[in-house]
Design goal:
The protein is an alpha/beta fold and 448 residues long. The protein has three domains: 142 residues, Response regulator (Rossmann fold); 114 residues, PAS domain (Beta-Lactamase); 172 residues, Reverse transcriptase/Diguanylate cyclase domain (Alpha-Beta Plaits, 2-Layer Sandwich). Helix content is 42%, strand content 23%. It is built from 15 helices and 16 strands. The longest helix is centred in the first third of the chain and has 26 residues. The chain is globular, with a radius of gyration of 29 Å.
Length: 448
C-alpha cells in the first residue's frame, strides 16, 4: 500500500465531544469546525458509549464532571471495549490536582485540557494526539505489510521507530532493527544469533517460552502481549511492552515488537510520589498514611506482631494563628513536621500530616513501651525548638499533646480500632492539661 494512502489528513479527522453542558459543546464545536474537523456530540457518557463503536471517531473530548457514568468511568469502559480501546481520549476538566490527573491517565486518557477552555490549547493538544494516532496507525499498517520476505527486509524495518526483532523458532534472533539495538544497548553481533529468551527475566521468560514452544505456533493466528522485564550484558534490567506474533511466510517466523516503558514508568511513579506528599509540610499526606497503615496492618497480622499509632496535635494552634498570622502558622507546621520526621527516622515508620495541625505516626513492630519512648522524644524535641507561643495556656512556647495506642492485630479486628484508641488517648492528653503523652493499651491508661 503506498505511503500516501496510509497518511491521514488530520484536518478532516472526526472528533466526538462528550459533555453534559450544551454551552461547552457549542464552544468546542465552533472552535473545531472552523479548523476543518468533523464534529459529533453526545450529552452524556451513556450515549457516548453507544455511538462511539459505530462512529469510530479519531479522537474523543470527554468531560470529567458528568452524572453517572462520569468521565473517568466512561473512559475506562471505552478502553475495555475492543472496538473503542484504541481511540485516544482527552479529558476536559477543571480538576487539576495531581491525584485527579493520575486517575485520568490510569483510566486510559492520553491527555487533559483544563477549563476554562482556551482555543489555542485545545487545537494544539488535539493536533498533537491526532498526529500521534496517525503515526501509530501508519506504523501498524507498516507492520501488517511484513507478510513476505520482501516487506521484512532491513530497509523497511529500519523505517520503523519501534524496536523490532525477528525470531526463527523457537527463539533464535534472526534480525534486529536499529531501534532494537539501541534498546538493548549493543551492536548487531550482541543480538543476532542469540536466544531471545535469555534476555527475559523470571516468570516473563517462562510465559514467552510457553508461547514460542507451542506446536505450529508460528502458523497459528495467536499473539503474545505482555509487560516484561529484560536485561542484556550492555544494559541493566528495564521494562518493556512485548508483542510477539507469527508471520505467514514460506518458513515459520516470529516478529517481536518492543516498547521501552522505563521513562514512562518513572514519570508515573513521580506523579504517584507527588500525590502522596503534603504540599505544605513535605511529609506524607493522609492518602499515603491510609495506604501505609493498611499494608502495615496486614503485615503485622502475618508476623503475629504488635503495632503502635501516635496521634499528635499542636496545643492551642488556633490561638497561635490568631496571634501570629496564618503565614507564620504555616511556618510553625513545617518546623513541627520536620522535627517529628527527624525524630522518627526508622525506615519502618511513617510520619504523616493527618489534617490541620494534627499529625500521625505509624510504628510497626513497636510495643507500648517503645512507642511511649518515641512519643516522649517527640514531645521533648518540640519543646527544644522553643517556638514562641504567648497565647498558649501551658507554656510560652509551642507544645504537643500526644495519644498512643498499641495493639496486636488479627484478621477479626478492624484497624480503625487502633486509630480510635490513639484518638481517645489524644483526647485524654488534652483533657488532662495538654503538653503530655497519654498511652492506651487494653483499655488501660498510662500517663507520662
Amino acid at each position: 500500500m503506498p505511503f500516501k494512502m496510509i497518511a491521514q489528513n488530520i484536518q478532516g479527522s472526526e472528533i466526538l465531544i462528550v459533555d453534559d453542558t450544551p454551552a461547552n459543546i457549542d464552544l468546542l464545536y465552533k472552535i473545531l469546525t472552523q479548523k476543518g474537523y468533523k464534529v459529533a456530540a453526545a450529552p452524556n457518557g451513556e450515549i457516548a458509549l453507544k455511538i462511539a463503536p459505530k462512529l469510530q471517531p479519531d479522537l474523543i473530548l470527554l468531560d470529567v464532571m458528568m452524572p453517572h457514568p462520569n468521565g473517568i468511568e466512561t473512559c475506562r469502559l471505552l478502553k475495555q471495549a475492543e472496538s473503542t480501546a484504541n481511540i485516544p481520549v482527552i479529558f476536559v476538566t477543571a480538576k487539576t490536582e495531581v491525584a485527579d490527573i493520575v486517575e485520568g491517565f490510569a483510566a486510559g486518557a492520553v491527555d487533559y485540557i483544563s477549563k476554562p477552555i482556551k482555543q489555542e490549547e485545545v487545537l494544539a493538544r488535539i493536533a498533537t494526539h491526532l498526529k500521534i494516532q496517525s503515526l501509530t496507525r501508519h506504523q501498524e499498517q507498516l507492520v501488517e505489510m511484513l507478510q513476505d520476505y520482501e516487506v521484512r527486509n532491513r530497509a523497511i524495518i529500519n523505517e520503523i521507530a519501534q524496536a523490532i526483532i525477528t525470531l526463527v523458532p523457537p527463539d533464535l534472533i534472526e534480525s534486529a532493527n536499529p531501534a532494537a539495538l539501541a534498546l538493548f544497548g549493543c551492536d548487531e553481533k550482541g543480538l543476532v544469533g542469540q536466544h531471545f529468551l535469555e534476555f527475559l527475566q523470571g516468570e516473563d521468560k517462562s510465559a514467552a517460552q510457553e508461547f514460542l514452544s507451542l506446536k505450529q505456533a508460528a502458523t497459528l493466528d495467536r499473539r503474545f502481549s505482555n509487560e516484561v522485564v529484560l536485561a542484556s550484558k550492555h544494559r541493566s534490567q528495564f521494562t518493556a511492552k512485548l508483542n510477539i506474533e507469527p508471520l505467514s511466510l514460506n518458513y515459520p517466523l516470529f516478529v517481536c515488537h518492543l516498547q521501552d516503558l522505563t521513562e514512562s514508568k518513572k514519570v508515573i511513579q513521580q506523579l504517584i510520589d507527588i500525590s502522596n506528599v503534603d504540599k505544605l509540610t513535605n511529609i506524607s499526606n493522609r492518602r499515603r498514611f491510609e495506604e501505609f497503615f493498611e499494608n502495615s496492618w496486614k503485615n503485622i497480622i502475618a508476623q503475629n506482631g504488635q503495632i503502635s499509632l501516635i496521634m499528635a496535635d499542636i496545643d492551642f494552634f488556633k490561638q497561635y494563628n490568631d496571634e501570629y498570622g496564618h503565614q507564620q502558622g504555616d511556618d510553625c507546621l513545617k518546623m513541627v513536621a520536620e522535627c517529628i520526621a527527624t525524630t522518627c527516622k526508622n525506615d519502618n515508620c511513617l510520619v504523616a500530616r493527618y489534617g490541620g495541625e494534627e499529625f500521625v505516626i505509624v510504628l510497626p513492630q513497636y510495643d507500648a513501651d517503645k512507642a511511649k519512648a518515641c512519643a516522649e522524644f517527640i514531645l521533648n524535641n518540640i519543646r527544644q525548638l522553643k517556638i514562641p507561643h504567648v497565647k498558649s495556656n501551658v507554656m510560652p512556647i509551642v507544645t504537643l499533646s500526644l495519644g498512643i495506642c498499641t495493639m496486636q492485630p488479627n484478621a477479626a479486628v478492624s484497624r480503625r480500632l487502633l486509630i480510635e484508641g490513639a484518638d481517645s488517648a489524644l483526647y485524654k492528653a488534652k483533657k488532662q492539661g495538654r503538653n503530655r503523652v497519654v498511652a492506651l493499651m487494653n483499655n488501660e491508661q498510662k500517663d507520662a
